[in-house]
Amino acid sequence: MKYNLLRYSRNYLINARLFILYWLLGGLFLGYSPLLAQSSYQAIIDAGSSGTRIYLYAITPKPQEKLPYIQSIFEYKLEPGLSDLINTPAQAKQQIKVLLDLARCSLTKTSNASKVPVHLLATAGLRLKNQKKVQQMFQTIQQHVAQDTHFTLKKALVLSGRYEGLYAWLATNYMSNRFVNLREQFALIEMGGASLQVAYALRTSSSQLTKKYLIRRKINNQNYVIYSRSYLGLGQNIAYDSLKSCQACFVPGPGTNNYEKCFQQVQNTLKKNYKLEGPHSLSRQDQLMVVSSFYYTFKSINLLNKDGQTTLGQFIRKGKQTHAQGRDAFVKRGNHYLKNHYLNLVYMPYLLQRFFQLSLTKKLTAYLKKDGKKLKPDWTLGAVIDIYLGHVPEKYK
To answer: 163-375 falls under which CATH superfamily?
Structure first.
């Protein structure tokens, strides 16, 4: 795919100017926050398969507590993802420049901080690319950021899958106060565009689990052993491409047993093309959070209750009802992701039921609620937590 550098540069500059105006006006009318004035800052650039997003976090220590108060004060996404710009590093550099410019405007509203650390962490989209080209692109970006007076690029790397899962687990349990109240932690399944992550804390030691997927952390004086594993190729976008041959999954009109026929073809294709490996004890985890693509798929069929929850059985029943009406009735609503979600109505239950061996009554939580607001954990928050605790992001090998 070819990209026009001039056209994208103009789009980036327009975005930058609009947001500069927005944040300057915000600072004028809202003023400065005393809490944020006492904070340090951390920026995370999530280089995903569908786009590049920057997050700026304010970190305020809490007296007598190991974990700080962490607040997201800015985020913004640009498309395409760096994985689509790997052959045009100048465009990749321009994209990162615009994101940093926008974050700088947000930062100057609340602080005069300089040399804010930045971690550019790429996920599955770049795990699938030629790593030599990836490093060349990162070098081009590093040369630019080295000249920036507000930000310091600490790391630019392709993040390991197990650390992506760890970070999502940390974010989920931090946001739900599971590290403070010593309640049972959420187990987690996260599906992105190119990979799927599963992570949970072990209750007891297990000789069945491969040691390379175990990560140890000490949080608020409690020791945790976290099983975290990533499955490259099981993200919704790559799964869609690999399952296009399943004709029963794309019947345009109403039909009987559309769902069952699709399920069988998905099962046959995955068994043939992908080695689904365990073992794991996810089915024994009481609290399960399913995020990212799961949330948006649930939302597309209005499945979640007021607490952001459903069950696997309810998910399957709604999927069968939707597939009985045919694909065209579902995707005509206009969202270009609906074609993925339509397949997800079969693909996701297959993974949850057959691979992860979850029961039909298993409760699935897709978002958290606090003060009446929906909270959707993002792995970048977990990255900030882990870096704050003194750990370094792990590079994909």
So the answer is: Exopolyphosphatase. Domain 2 (3.30.420.150)
Of 94, 82, 87, 93, the C-alpha closest to 142 is: 93
Beta 368-370 vs 309-311: how paired, if at all?
unpaired
284 Cβ contact list (under 8 Å, min separation 6) = none
Alpha helices, H only, the chain: 5-30, 34-37, 89-110, 124-127, 131-145, 161-175, 236-242, 258-273, 293-300, 312-325, 327-331, 338-350, 379-388
CA distances from 306 to 360, 365, 368, 376, 378 (A): 20, 11, 10, 14, 21
Same fold, 5-158 and 163-375: yes
- Residue pair 47/82 in contact (Cβ under 8 Å)? The answer is yes
Give the CATH H-level superfamily of domain 5-158.
Answer: ATPase, nucleotide binding domain (3.30.420.40)
> Is 0.85 topped by the overall pTM?
yes
Three-state SS letters, 190-232: EECCCEEEEEEECCCCCCCCCHHHEEEEEECCEEEEEEEEEEE
pLDDT tens-place string over residues 26-64: 444 333 444 444 579 999 999 998 899 999 999 999 887
According to DSSP, residue 131 is labeled H
